[in-house]
Amino acid sequence: MSKKIQQVSQRSELISLQEAKNWLRVTSNREDSLINMLIESALDFAENTCKSNLAQRDYMGYFSCFSEILLPHPPICSIDEVGYIALGESDYTIIDSSNYELNDSGFEGIIDFDIDLTNIVLKDTYKAIRVNYKAGYDSIDCPATIKDAMLAYIASRYDSRDDQNKRFRTMAEDLLEPYRIYNL
């Protein structure tokens, strides 16, 4: 089975400028650009540490067959649309959302279909099936531990603007540990 996944939107913001300024106890606007840069850097740090996309993004996935459609970039928030191109057709036929559900019990999201798909003959292309979905956290449902880790990282970088020789794990790394994905 072939698949191709494209990110179709920018990642969401998990920490606002105002949240970071409150954490840092900064009241002026003079360092807003620096703090915005540190917010981006903290999100990069958190996602690299966890080996996962934490901030919400929209994805479009293309698959060649219905069996085992695995949606990468957990956590999967929602499936917006599933469509397929039948043999002899040129446009996608959209499957009603009541005919499938997201099974996010594993590492990747899986689509469980409630309809018989064996009678559908798909066009011979890797783009025969298209799935639009959202993955990652938004600022409201992001675990507090991830936000705390990002804020700790921001504070550390804000207070010490040099490249330190690190010998021990940081508090931010410890906080992110439960969300880290290890390769099997």
How would you describe the overall organization of this protein?
The structure is a single chain. This protein is α+β, with helices and mostly antiparallel strands and 184 residues long. It folds into 2 domains: 10-54 and 143-177, Hypothetical protein yqbg; 57-135. It is 27% helix and 23% strand. It has helices at 17-24, 32-50, 144-159, 171-176, and strands at residues 3-7, 57-63, 70-71, 76-84, 93-95, 100-103, 109-113, 129-135. α2 (32-50) packs across α3 (144-159). The mean pLDDT is 89.
Q: Quote the average pLDDT.
A: 89
Ends apart, CA distance between termini: 21 Å
Radius of gyration, CA atoms, in whole angstroms: 20 Å
* Oligomer category: single chain
Structural class, please? alpha+beta
Number of strands: 8
The backbone outline, from C-alpha atoms, is elongated
Structural domains: how many: 2
Give the helix proportion (percent range).
25-40%
Tally of helical segments: 4
Low-confidence stretches: none
The topology string of helices and strands comes to EHHEEEEEEEHH
The CATH topology label of the largest domain is: Hypothetical protein yqbg
Largest sheet: 5 strands, antiparallel
Range of strand content: 15-25%
Reading off the top of the CATH hierarchy, the class of the largest domain is best stated as Mainly Alpha
Order of strands in the sheet with most strands: 1-2-8-4-5
- At the fourth level of CATH, the homologous superfamily of the largest domain is Phage gp6-like head-tail connector protein
CATH architecture of the largest domain: Orthogonal Bundle
